[in-house]
Automatic annotation (TrEMBL):
It holds the Pfam family YchJ_M-like. Residues 28-125 form the YchJ-like middle NTF2-like domain. It comes from the Bacteria. This is Zinc chelation protein SecC. It comes from Ferrimonas sediminicola. PANTHER family: ADENYLATE CYCLASE-ASSOCIATED CAP C-TERMINAL DOMAIN-CONTAINING PROTEIN, UPF0225 PROTEIN SCO1677.
Length: 152
């Protein structure tokens, strides 16, 4: 088993996988966010739908999510801000780095989460301007190397 996609440094089978398999529930919005990022990498579309707030699902379907999993070429996840939740509401700001041609760009989003009957759900996100990874930036894959010596 390799390290979890979410960059926690833990093994996948003790991190995001138990959540995806329904053997555990996320204890915090950050944990849910991490598991959803891993689900995008793994193509776990059913889990993505299952953890999407029913009130904001709109036209999000498993097929739509499966397509975005296939199209995404994620390199790493960076949690920018994960304040403690206020009651049943929580927020996480993250950058999800992905490869596009020769570049690595970040989807930068501040996401809202809601807890319903003890389970956290992703409600919506406010997208921030796209960021391009610099050659001398730390590589988002978590290797500890500069991007130009690693994934870029
Ligand atoms: Zn994980
Ligand atoms: Zn790298």
């Amino acid at each position: 088993m390799s390290h979890c996609h979410c960059g926690s440094g833990r093994q996948f089978d003790c991190c995001c996988q138990p959540l995806q398999l329904g053997k555990a529930v996320a204890a915090s919005p950050e944990q849910l966010m991490r598991s959803r990022y891993s689900a995008f990498v793994e193509g776990a579309a059913a889990y993505l739908l299952d953890t999407h707030d029913p009130d904001t699902r709109d036209d999000v379907t498993e097929a739509v999510l499966a397509r975005s999993c296939e199209e995404s070429r994620f390199v790493g996840l960076q949690i920018v801000d994960a304040p403690p939740p206020k009651g049943e509401q929580g927020e996480v700001e993250f950058r999800a780095w992905y490869r596009q041609g020769e570049d690595i760009l970040a989807l930068w989003e501040r996401s809202q989460f809601r807890r319903l009957e003890g389970r956290w759900f992703y409600s919506r996100g406010e997208i921030r301007p796209a960021v391009k990874l610099g050659r001398n930036d730390p590589c988002p894959c978590g290797s500890g190397k500069k991007a130009k010596r690693c994934c870029l």
